[in-house]
Design a protein that fits this description.
The protein is mostly helical. The chain has one domain. Helix content is about 75%, strand content about 0%.
Length: about 110
């Protein structure tokens, strides 16, 4: 993507993000990694051990990036759009939790 094609807002970013997460396996790894990250965050508050934050980041990104490199065969959006990618990760997590992410993938594919 060259500089002229750079995405300018989250509304433009979201369909790009969904297309980059088109396989259920990649989305599942994201969901697992993000869920483990939440568990680690809660563990930090419960125990006061700040190492859980680092563990949560390692698990969250490790699972997600494994999905990109070995399932989707693409580069994580985190590298180019870190904030929007972080926000989209949690939107995807919520849609996955509520059973609506597959429908969102189909919607974005139809509108592309």
């Amino acid at each position: 993507m060259n500089q002229e094609d750079r995405i300018k807002n989250f509304e433009e970013f979201w369909p790009y993000y969904v297309r980059e997460h088109s396989t259920a396996g990649c989305r599942l790894l994201h969901f697992v990694g993000s869920s483990l990250g939440l568990i680690c965050l809660a563990s930090t508050f419960i125990t006061g051990n700040l190492w859980f934050i680092l563990l949560g980041l390692a698990l969250g990104y490790g699972f997600a990036w494994t999905g990109h490199f070995f399932i989707e065969h693409n580069k994580p959006a985190t590298f180019q759009y870190p904030l929007w990618s972080f926000l989209a990760d949690w939107k995807m997590w919520r849609l996955t939790l509520t059973g609506k992410m597959e429908m969102e993938v189909r919607r974005v594919a139809q509108n592309s």
